[in-house]
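Risk register update: the risk that structure generation would not scale has been downgraded. Supporting records follow, first protein first.
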Amino acid sequence: MTGYLSVVSVGLLAATLACNAIASEVKRSKITFHGNAYQYQFTIELNAPVDVVREIVTDYENLNRINDDVVKSEILEHYDESRLKRRMWLNHCVLVFCFDLYFVEDVEDLGDGTITTTVIPAESNFQAGYSKWHIDAVSDTVTRISVEAEQRPDFWIPPVIGPLVFKRAFMKEVRETGIKIEREAKRVGSQ
């Protein structure tokens, strides 16, 4: 049960993206729970060019533009041109329960449209976590993002917040984030 809450915000990012019937489309979405861990996968297509989408989702210090739960996101250290250390703090409420989620991750851009993240447990309120993002062009104006992740939070979630509540919240977060990425892409493209 303890993994349910962070799905909403981190799956995001996460985190992590999304669906708008008029614009973007969720092609696949799945979340499963195993004890205090959870796994999620999703694939979405966004109406925005791949280079603009990559720029937005890797603007680590401004992730609050695409997800309202992000209180702060910052780069702590650049290891080299493709690897860095990032800290994120999210605040999310489900029903009447609100939670602060914080984690520090090693992030690596493999240069082929793939980005991986690995949670550093000693600096996070997660026991473990990883994600793998694939960001690819479907066409000149459409981008596909596929994400698979597993996370194990290190905090208690009240049992009244069950898998069904979190699955619904997860999909809502995915939709809203996708819409915001597309809006941000339009803003960036018009500059």
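Supporting record for the second protein:
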Amino acid sequence: MTKRKGQTLIEVVVATMIAAISATAVFSVVLTTTISTARSDKREAAALMLKRAQETLKNYVSAVPTESAYVPNAGKWSADSSGVWALEPGTHDISSLMNCPYLVGNPANPVINPKCDACSQSSSVCSFTYTVTTLPCGFNAAGMDVTRTQCKQVDFSLKYPDAN
């Protein structure tokens, strides 16, 4: 048998398969990292929205609901679509706080951001609500409006689509 210089077809196929498997592994790590970063950003934005909502509601805790001098915006939160006192028992929709850059692309010729379509007004995909429950505190005086002077428990609900 004579020796030939170069590689055989089997060697080339094996080398190609090893390169393909290595490239697949690298791209898999890159893709996983990108998706994880997007989800992390979304969680961070959600945490910020919740914190802002909590801080805003604190303004109404010590307010006297019947005296306009002590109540911000006459006791109503402008983000709340219900139009009632911010700590009125029940569910309040504050989905308007879910800001989204509706126009993207070239400023001279912007297009509607397709990700914002999912979070438009009255969307079933996106919502940000809080529910106020009245709890007895034991310090209500006779003649006081019980609804407005009792302790309140506030539970938030934030529904947002996954990052693509």
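The mean pLDDT is 76. On this basis the risk owner (M.S.) recommends closing the item.
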